[in-house]
Specification:
This protein is an all-alpha fold. The chain has helices spanning 8-15, 33-40, 44-49, 65-78, 85-96, 109-119, 121-130, 134-147, 151-159, 179-185, 207-212; strands at residues 56-57, 60-61. It has one domain (8-165). It contains 11 helices and 2 strands; from the N terminus they run αααββαααααααα.
Amino acid sequence: MGDYKVSLARAELERHDWDAIPCGCGQPARHLLGALESVIEGKASGAIRALDDHVFIQSILMPPAPAVCAVIMAHMADGIAPGQEQELLRLLLGFVAGEEDGDSVESSLQLRCFETVRDGLWLVYRTLLDAQGPEAKGYADDVLEVVEWDAGRLRCGSTGTCERATGEGAKTNDLRKSPRYLDRERGGGAGDRDRLMYAWPLQSCDVGCARRRGLLG
């Protein structure tokens, strides 16, 4: 027996039908597999730049975004090579704070990315704690500002100052009570221009609005 190690990222990569996912360039998304393999092999920087105009067009999410987001989160679970944190966290921020094309017929790409990153919340905290430079820590903080519902846990993870949440401090940002989620539950169209809304910390401002106001850096 050799030292074969199961890769969660490769398993996630194989789970998706990339031929059936339209890429931002208009071709099937299968051609992205080379770049994603490079990310898995620890060559994140150039590979992530190769995703521009395919997974994102400027800040607008394209149909491959949820699948690519899932592969990146699985790669983080595998354990990432030193020096990859900044590029990967910047990519995650693009997923959770990205915009959607108003003409898209996809179910919310942003919501699907949000849920994937939210499901791997502790991986983002782990990367925040392990990050080597201030830029990587800054990106991790920005991602957590979007996906973390618990103000006390965010403060604890970001500053190391922890206190037991009680009363008002124990309340979390429940996405299921947000106007955006409720609109989806009532059958709101996938192509509408209003995006994910958060009760905290962005209050009545969506992610795009928050970025324009400088709340997300």
